[in-house]
Amino acid sequence: MKLSRLFRNRKSRKYPIRRDEQGLSLRTRCFALFDQGKRPAEVAEELKMKETTVFRYYRQWKRQGPNFETQYAFVKSLFKKTSPEREKNLEIFSKACGVSKEEFENILSKPHGLRSFLTGQIYFPINADADHKLSMALQLALLFFDHLVKNKGKFEDVYFTLKRYLRECAKYREEEDDEITEENKILVLLHKTLAADLSNERKGRVKPDRLSEEERAALVKRGIASEMKKIESLYWIRVGVLMAEGLTEEQARERIYQDIEKDGDPNKAKAMREFQDKIHPLKINGQEEPPVSPPQL
Asked: Cystine design at 161: which of 57, 103, 239, 243 (Cβ 3.0–4.6 Å)?
């Protein structure tokens, strides 16, 4: 590296900023006229400016949106260090952006930090969540397109399949909430028992009885039932996905069984068939019917 580069002066503006009697720069005055609806050619003529400069300011104004300077001044006033509501405003904005108050305050302390924030140049966790939801929407749209166009499906099939899937998920969430409520009650009881046990131990008393065989068996049974509900919910979700791909409910049932059978484990296949016969039996008019083979892909 040349020594001259180490000691070179900082580059300064070629021309000074031109301001009017109120201290407004040409750029600020241009933005104000754009907010009033005037076109770049009119602004150039009124302010006696070069059209190239005016059009450059116009592109900046378009990126920021109309009335940006007014919005910028308003938001800037919310974070004045002399404002008694500054800490509260910082907390509100940081929570909306999904960052801590210290991180948001650090953004404001940087040069042009507030302007970068208002123009969307900073990426926040809240943006990542929105992008994830857009990606999910795109995947669902492609799945529906594949079913409706390539597989010559019908809108009603997709609609009722999705409606059933959402209903099953809502039911599953309600059951999960009920189970969590019951588990919380048990935990409260256990905490009280442990607190009493610890208190008695400190006093040198005899420890209270532990859970009986019947109580342990009931808790194990509850855990098994909870796990079986989760497995059944996953099964119906898989059925819904296959139906969205163009299969009937019976064909989806058989496809799931065939996928497990291809693994070469007869015990797993047998267990899946018994599981299907229990929660997803094939019955038409009260009679057992042979499964319909799904179409080969």
From this structure: 243
> For residues 86 and 69, which has the higher predicted lDDT (pLDDT)?
86
Give residue 281's domain range.
153-288
Are 132 and 48 part of one and the same domain?
A: no
In the three-class reduction of DSSP (H, G, I as helix; E, B as strand; rest coil), residue 288 is classed as: strand
Same domain, 171 and 52: no
Are the C-beta atoms of 78 and 89 separated by less than 8 Å? yes
Residue 211 included in any domain: yes
Q: Residue 190 domain-assigned?
A: yes
Predicted structure pTM score = 0.36
Q: What values do phi and psi take at 25, rounded to 5? A: -75, 165
For the stretch 26-70, pLDDT in tens is: 888 888 888 888 898 898 888 888 888 889 888 888 877 777 777
Q: Is 90 in the same domain as 203?
A: no
Q: For the chain, how many structural domains are there in total? A: 3
Model confidence pLDDT, tens digit, residues 195-240: 877 777 777 665 556 777 887 888 888 888 888 888 888 888 888 8
Domain end among 152, 173, 196: 152
**Structure-block tokens of residue 154:** 């019908």
C-alpha distances in Å from residue 29, one per residue of 17, 19, 35, 38, 98: 12, 9, 10, 12, 35
What are 72's two structure tokens?
């910028």
